[in-house]
Amino acid sequence: MMAADDAGAKTSLQRGLAILRVLAETDESGPDSGSGMRLTDIARALELTPPTVHRILKTLLDEGMVEADKTTKRYRLSVDFFALAARAGNPGNLRDVCRPIILRLSATLRDTIFLLVRSGFDAVCLDRSEGPVPIRSFTGDIGGRIALGIGQGSISILAFLPEEEREEVIRFNLPRMHGLGFLDEVYLRTEIARVRELGYASRSTGLLPGMAGVAVPILDQQGHAVAAISVGTIAERLNDDRLPVVVDILKREAAGVSRLISPFDPVLRRPASVLGGSGP
Amino acid sequence: MMAADDAGAKTSLQRGLAILRVLAETDESGPDSGSGMRLTDIARALELTPPTVHRILKTLLDEGMVEADKTTKRYRLSVDFFALAARAGNPGNLRDVCRPIILRLSATLRDTIFLLVRSGFDAVCLDRSEGPVPIRSFTGDIGGRIALGIGQGSISILAFLPEEEREEVIRFNLPRMHGLGFLDEVYLRTEIARVRELGYASRSTGLLPGMAGVAVPILDQQGHAVAAISVGTIAERLNDDRLPVVVDILKREAAGVSRLISPFDPVLRRPASVLGGSGP
DNA sequence: CGCCACCATTCCGTATATCGGAAAGAATCG
DNA sequence: CGATTCTTTCCGATATACGGAATGGTGGCG
Question: Number of folded domains in chain A?
């Protein structure tokens, strides 16, 4: 069980990470974002005493992970921390491998392209390149998360997970989805079957009016999804004429990526897994 | 505050962060990127004993900041960590405020737009939106760093720092620059003077052949630079006809941002409640 | 095929960093 | 201008982290 506020944190490292997480929450988009948190607020949120928070914050400050506004005494995650993260999230070179493809696709299709990767029960947006047409999407920005099953890219990953994992994700995510959309289990399973059959996910879910998308999974050697390439655009741009063309291009690119990731290394008995272990 | 602030990490939190940093280094682009590090490599790099590294890695693993490939025993930063830190780097809402502007600019100008922010002696790329023309740049990707003074966006920040800070940065960065480019101090100071006079930085530095850029600083209330908006494109697209137009558009947008950031309200103005309202 | 070398992992006594109550400065509010 | 809330420092008791030593694995090499 993963409580949001880490009631079981015992070590100072865990407390430090908890503080980073709490700061990240207030740094996300919103009216107060960027303004940061005060020491006592952090202490309250994490059920720590002010001296403890103060000491840890001082360390985080010295290490450059956190920055403080000296006048307002408010703490927030630093730009350095942001820059550090840019070097993460590249499992199996996936992001590096896909960047040129993403750029090429958005230039060719003149739509916004997303690279999504699975992380636990979510899909996370690893990269994106905007087309000229502004769109809205579930994952939105780089680093954005969405439950596996919501949105074309996300569902195309879910559809091509190993059956056991797929069931586990569905079990876990259905309750979460009821809050976000109006998907019921029957609909979800129908969609998954369709995606598996077609090899791509499309159609507007109706959750974002006027928006539409297509996505294809990126499969590993075993034919299981590790990621997805997704096109987000307005509904008119995915009509019956254009859709097949886009799908065709996407499938070709995805197949190319499949060949490039986890290149067979004779030393290893198995290809390196692209997936992380951030599951249950 | 005695001495001993030196490189020798003492607390477990510092060691944990050091491990994250070391993992970030090997995760950056390169032939081995994405493959991760082994435990003993980390131990050697940080001059720690294997048991210590093992214990800390276990914590980081439990906390989801690090993921390990079970077969190869290699550790790397997790996608979760990536998602976490992607929420940082939004000082004073700067990124949120600028995103629509970045998108609008890249759609209008059909070039690649960067948002750079100062971090210490560097400029860091906070956001970017690619135009149809592929380009190369110093900062490159989101999260990329470049010494203040190299590149149009970077130098336009440097030029509009308070004089004292500007001198400090120049002193610190000149030695670093000699490795990167061929800038000498006279040239740098000439450029800075020119940028201050014109209010923007342009001209191809010649460091990236065929590439060109224009950038304008984003100023705070005191007229000091906190960030810059930069256009990166190929040299032909910044000829004498187009350059003034682009500069004009950029200046207008930058002025708009200046008004939006840190709306310093001298009266007692607490931004609602920090914990408050619509929690996710 | 089997030995060797290196690596990951566990154990545990010692040493030390961490914790938080108490209280002194700051800032803020009424 | 006094009251309240918050930040920061101090310090002793204690829990936690450390790393040497030993164990279990895994790949490399002869």
Answer: 2
| Nucleotide in closest CA–C1' contact with B12 | D17
The C-alpha atoms of residue A39 and residue A52 are separated, in whole angstroms, by 10
Asked if A83's CB is within 8 angstroms of B124's CB, the reply is: yes
pLDDT given for residue A16 in this prediction: 97
* Burial A194-218, CB ≥16 within 10 A → b, else e: ebeeebbbbeebeebeebbbbbbbb
Q: Is B93 on the interface with A (CB under 8 A)?
A: yes
Q: What are phi and psi of B77, to 5 degrees?
A: -65, 140
Quick one: how far is CA B112 from the chain centroid? 16
Range of the domain at A27: 2-77
Residue A241 lies in a domain: yes
* Protein CA B164 to sugar C1' D9 (Å): 32
pLDDT value for B260:
84
pTM of the model: 0.87
Structure tokens at B204: 């191809």
Give, in Å, how far the C1' of C26 lies from the CA of A56.
21
Give CA–CA dist A8/A11, Å, rounded. Answer: 9
Domain identity same for B31 and B152: no
B107 and B167 in a single domain? The answer is yes
Query: Nearest by CB to B82, which of A16, A25, A85?
Result: A85
Query: What single-letter amino acid sits at A157?
Result: I
Distance CA B20, CA B92 (A): 26
Average the pLDDT over B233-249 and give the result: 92
Clarify whether residues A73 and A24 are in a common domain.
yes
Q: How far apart are CA A201 and CA B117, in angstroms?
A: 38
Residues of chain A with pLDDT under 70: 1-9, 27-34, 180-183, 204-207, 262-280
What CATH number did the domain enclosing B68 receive? 1.10.10.10
A228 & A99 share domain: yes
Residues 26-55 of B with CB under 7 A from strand C: 38-41, 43, 50-51, 54-55
Do B134 and B169 lie in one domain? The reply is: yes
The reply to whether the CB atom of residue B107 sits less than 7 A from any atom in nucleic acid chain C is no
* Mean pLDDT within B1-9: 42
B89–A103: do the CB atoms touch at under 8 Å? no
Q: Quick check: A43 CB within 7 A of strand C?
A: no
| CB of B5 less than 8 A from some CB of A | yes
Does residue A129 sit within a domain?
yes
